[in-house]
């Protein structure tokens, strides 16, 4: 049996309770093969609520790097990936030294700090990886507190959410980046999320780039965690705001900044890119206008 060395990549920003809950859930893993070890690489983007200090105190084996608050989530994930490559990224007990030993990792796991993994999550993900082969991406579906799937693989032009199949891994075209397992072979071929995308779209772009490179993606057969606070809701959807404010929010760095959205459309939606480029902004303006009229 070949050894598995898992490099877990996480980012955090002012969500101390959720980050600590995610790390506790990661510690409470069940069914992990005896030949599997892990190391955690966390990049904190300027938290002022004591997140990095609390992680160092309560989870001393986690490798924590603090960067400025101007570093976007996508870039922080790239830094965590770089740290895993420079430090090995294997691991063992989470009470060991930060980052794990210096041996090479065999897999990376993107783990959003808002996701609390189920105890059998790693076993489910690695089991699915065995089933589909080392040349594929495995995506973990995440539920909200009410049990509905909110993050998973995506399929088709409309990016329909893919539900876990139950009996085996379900194919998908791309994926939300909350829980994603990549083998080293896949990472060597596809790389990290593209730095052109700062917050959103980087995970979808990564999935489509993987597909173009001949790398299939699958959703693990059962959900792997819960998003404790529920899914993130774009600020542009807030009821009652005016058109100008709604457009300011939708074009902000955390939603759909026009330059990044245009790059995404050009790469993955041609020849419909010009239409799709303007459609979310037009819908946002129309929604805000209608909301004001109804109010």
From TrEMBL:
UniProt KW keywords: Glycosyltransferase, Transferase
Biochemical pathway: Cell wall biogenesis; cell wall polysaccharide biosynthesis
Renumbered residue ranges of the record's region Disordered: 80-102
Keyword Glycosyltransferase among UniProt keywords: yes
Record keyword Glycosyltransferase present: yes
GO molecular function: glycosyltransferase activity
Residue ranges, compositional bias (Gly residues): 86-99
Name of protein: Glucosyl transferase
Record organism: Kitasatospora albolonga
